[in-house]
Amino acid sequence: MASDLRVKSIRLRLFATSAIALGFAALANPALAATPREICSAPAADAAPIQASIAELQRATLAAERILAAPASDLLAGDRALVQLEVLEGQAETLEPTAIAAYCSAAGEAMRVARQGSGSRAQTYLLSALAQAGQAGSSDLQAGIAYRLALTSRNLPVRPNARSARRSISETAAPITGAQTAGLNPQDKCGTLLRTRLDDQSNWASSKLALECAASSASGLRASDISAVAQLQLARITLAEADRRAIDRKYLNEEASFSALDGLLFAGGIANRTRRFDITARLVESILDSGEVADPRLNEGLGALERDLSGDAGENAWLSALQGRAMLAAGNQEQAAALLRRAVFFESQRGQPLRLADWYLELAGADDARRDEYVMQAYQSLEAVRPLLPTVDPVTEESLFKLRMQPVFNAAVDVQLSRGAQDAGDVLQAQRMVESFRQAEIQYVFGPDCVPPRIPVSPADLRDGEILLYPILLADRVEVLYAAKTPGEAVPQYQRFTAREGADLERVERLVKQVSFELGYGTDDSWEAPSAELYSILIKPIEDRLTDDTTLVIVPDGILRRLPFAALRDGEGQMLIQKTGLSIAPSLAYTQPGTENEKNTQVVAASLSQEVDLPAGFFSALPATASEARMAAGLGDPAATSGIYLENFSRADLVTAFSEQSIDVLHLATHASFNGRSDRSFIVAEDEAILLSELRELIGSTLSRGELLSLIILSACETAVGDDQASMGLAGAAVQAGSESAIASLWEVDDAGTAKLMQNFYQFYASGQGKAEALRNAQLAMIASEGDDADPGIWAAFTLLGAWR
User: Fold this and answer.
1) Helix, strand and coil percent figures for the chain, each rounded to 5
2) Angle at CA 130, nearest 5°, toward 128 and 131?
3) Mind listing the pLDDT tens digit for each residue in 582-632?
4) Which of the four, 135, 290, 491, 779, has the lowest number of CB atoms within 10 Å?
5) How confident is the model at residue 221 (pLDDT cuts 50, 70, 90)?
6) What's the CA gap between 315 and 313, in Å, rounded?
7) Are residues 801 and 742 in contact, defined by beta-carbon separation less than 8 angstroms?
8) Vertex 283, ends 281 and 287: CA angle to 5°?
9) How many angstroms separate the CA atoms of 104 and 125, rounded?
10) Are 479 and 498 in contact (CB under 8 A)?
């Protein structure tokens, strides 16, 4: 339980229960070594009883739980806890289920939060722990374990981040069967969870099952804190799911409201006043977020907050804001505005008014006459405290960027663009806001110390034929800003166009999902119609500027990062890549045009063809990577010896290669994972996962010699896509690691098709073409082949991020 499941009351309950659980032993046996993999992987029905040293099990579990109780800011807690749990040696004894449950709960949580942890492996450990706790009849342990399982399931990758391979069967969360579920009530929420194959469920569905198990187990114990927090989490994940599934939004919002209302029943039993106020306020806020406000228990929750209120300015501001939102939902706009002004007043009295932007934005919705003024005050307030905001909410682990910052940025840009239809000053100010937004998002993902911004690319930096494009997804429309250098023009200015009527955020999100899924995983041409519609929305107003000599540099917003822009089709069926070169930029402050390509390119190509079993997960063999990397080292000629080829590479191999000579291109043909957070991004080597931060240090060592890595090619599955808050996933992170550019894939790639595309790219790049030009010509060659390689599901997967020259 990270962050505030490093929430003290819940964490201490688990810690105490774990300590009690470790006194069970039976038959003595010879000395034996055991690990979490051996103890916590679901055993076969006829497996022998698990055996390990009781004393070592107790020591390891308690030591790990103490480490895991550290603040959420301690990013190495999971890794240190795994060290404590890894090897248990000593006199072997048959373990009782409660002891195994406590140990596997700690192992699962450590695996969840460790930098090189595996979400799927954590899920397996926690399912095993839950089954053991059920066997022992320990509802207390069940509640805590199920909560941890919910957090794990929520953040699993939607698809495995492994090149051309599904997860190994050993890595999937199969249902627990046989003796482990004996005696469980089929109607019991935890029994349902254990009998469900979680890898067949969505992240939301898996988390929902786990939270229902946690809440029902804690309810029987009258454990108010964990019951209330489980219901709060259930409400929050359901609200997030409602945002993703417009067709089910009404139903899901109702479900979220029911969960939050149920949580209010338990929140009143929390002993600590400060904690009780915090959880109750979050539950009330969730009810208001759902829009389902007719239930009288909402007012009861507000009344409970008023009774619990202290003299703290933050609490007074929060209560006033919630009361104002309730008034606004009831249609009393004047009283709502008065209460929200009161919230602004109280928040302003705080030393760090971290929620002042939130309350100004709510006030803007209640006061139509001064809406624009309050929106801009929200924006200014956010800019003042943005460096102080944590990355995630300390209780719910939601992204604070998405929860608190994105609505303010979007509202401010909306206001700015509404002030003047084509006024150059207003358009420029809107562009600066959007750029600030992009920078803020990158800093929240990668950390401000790791990725200090450079001087942003400006229209004045453009050459003839280079076009900057900023699509902005607003709730009711799509705005597009662009700047283009044209012959004879002194300094280009940003201009704008508003997409045609009906092109709102919801519509665009649905179209992008259709295109990206059908191209990546479909088997027919159903991607073509939505692709053409997206072309009409995003590209058509500037298509007369696009030629064979242009390069379109796109700074995508939100879900557009999943879009294979190269495969957008015009009305006549021609692809965008057939009209222009393309590059994707996370933001202009983290992108430079790039240096000219000199023909004497030095390549280091590293491949991993063998299967690898690491703490971060099991990674299957990649038989085609060796030939691909040899070809890359030879700049398109597998028989050439111009570069360095590292077969089944190790960290030491990369260190040696970087220390011995100047390197222009690093080609990595291996598994990779963004893993939901920048600090957990890694590539897979022969004997370990190499963290992105470690790769950054390695590449950074070349900067001391005045050298800059020109290009990283990540020939691995889905490396251009991260989670909802990530700016370009692992590939965007690679650009920040010290490379001018990265080429990476948007979906699982075909080995043979990838090898052909890469061979084309290197041949063009070796001839002196720029990166965008070389990738474009490689893709055009695939299209011209008219065979299987012409399928955009192969060549459109790869995209260039960063410098384009």
Assistant:
1) 55, 10, 35
2) 65
3) 999 888 877 888 877 776 788 999 999 999 988 777 888 888 889 989 999
4) 491
5) low
6) 6
7) yes
8) 115
9) 6
10) yes
C-alpha 260: how far from chain center:
25
By C-alpha distance, which of 330, 360, 327 is closest to 343?
A: 360
DSSP letters for 251-286: HHHHHHHHHHHHHHHHHTT-SSHHHHHHHHHHHHHH
Q: Give pTM, 2 decimals.
A: 0.86
* Euclidean distance between CA atoms 359 and 562, whole angstroms: 32
Give the relative orientation of helices 54-68 and 77-85 as an angle to the nearest 10 degrees. 180
Cα–Cα dist 14/145, whole Å: 8
Are 337 and 367 in contact, with CB atoms under 8 Å apart? yes
d(CA 618, CA 615): 8
Q: Give the residues across from 575 on adjacent strands.
A: 569
Q: How many helices (H) and strands (E) does the chain have?
A: 29, 19
* Amino acid making up residue 284: V
HEC letters along 587-610? CHHHCCCCCCCCCCCCEEEEECCC
What H or E segment, with its residue span, contains residue 729? helix 729-736
At 464 the three-state DSSP class reads: coil
Q: How far, in Å, are 158, 292, 488, 507, 512 from residue 247 at the CA level?
A: 20, 17, 50, 11, 16
DSSP state of 392: B
**Which comes out higher in pLDDT, residue 642 or 320?**
320
Per-residue tokens: 785: 């082949």
Rounded distance, CA 666 to CA 669, Å?
10
Tokens (6 digits) for 330:
């009831």
Structure tokens at 790: 């012409």
> The tokens 């058509």 sit on which residue?
540
**372 is written with which tokens?**
């624009």
pLDDT in tens, 388-414: 888 889 899 888 888 999 999 999 999
